[in-house]
Amino acid sequence: MELSNMPIHHRLQLLIFSLLSSAVLLHATHPIAAAILRFLTTNLLLNAIISLLTTILIFLHFRLRSHPVFLLNYSCFQPPNHRKCTYQLANDFVLHGGRFTTPEPVKFMRNIYLKSGLGNDTYAPPFMFEKDQTPTMKNAVQEAEEGIFSSVDSVLAKTLILPEEIDVVIVTGGSFSPSPSLASLIVNRYNLRPDVKTYNLSGMGCSSGVISIDLAYRILRGGGRKIKNVLVVVTESITLNWYDGEERSMLVTNCIFRVGCAAAIITNDPSRRSTAKMELQHCLRTHHGADDSAYHAAFQEEDGKGITGVSLTKDLIRVAGLNLRQHIKILAPRVLSLNQLVGYVCSVVSSVMSGGQMKPVVPDFTMAFEHICVHTGGKAVIEQVARVLKFNDSVTEPARMCLNRFGNTSSSLVFYELAYFEAKNRVKKGDKMWMLAFGTGFKVGSLVWKWVNDPETELDNPWNDSIGQYPLKIW
Question: Is 371 a catalytic residue?
Answer without folding.
Answer: yes
